[in-house]
Amino acid sequence: MKANELRIGNWVEYYLEPQISEWVENKISVGDLAKIIQYPKAHGFRPIPLTEEKLIELGFQEVNCTKRGVLAQYSKSKIKFDISNSGNVYLSHKNILIKHVHHLQNLMFALTREELTLTKKL
User: Fold this and answer.
1) What backbone torsions phi and psi does residue 66 show, to the nearest 5 degrees?
2) Where are the domains of the chain?
3) 55: helix, coil or strand?
4) d(C-alpha 18, C-alpha 2), whole Å
5) What is the pLDDT of residues 52-97, one digit of tens each?
């Protein structure tokens, strides 16, 4: 994960207790972003994988889908994402793989100018 991929407010995992490898999910702050820029290899942050469960937690609603090779489809603000049979998340009709929550946050902000809000804690 690179600093230029992140915005303040992106959700990532970080070490709560590095000695016992305990990770928690939290939003990136200004201070966190500065650490990542200054120490890119030793910042203790990692991306959260984007899953069907995460889409639901971020307020996406399942919609009817009859596309071949698509297990489910979710929509928010008229933007649709496909869940493949392998569990990967793709931007519908563009076949662009979205691997991490912060990528989804950035894409949705770029397309809608609105921040994703949680319907429940990640």
Assistant:
1) -120, 15
2) 3-46, 52-112
3) helix
4) 20
5) 999 999 999 999 887 888 889 999 999 999 999 889 999 998 889 9
Strands (E), the chain: 11-17, 22-27, 45-46, 61-63, 70-76, 79-84, 89-91, 96-97
pTM of the full structure: 0.85
Of 63, 76, 67, give the one whose Cα is nearest residue 109: 76
Residue tagged 């399942």 (tokens): 62
The third-level CATH classification (topology) of the domain covering 52-112 is TATA-Binding Protein (3.30.310)
CA dist 55 and 44 (Å) reads 24
* 51 Cβ contact list (under 8 Å, min separation 6): 87, 89
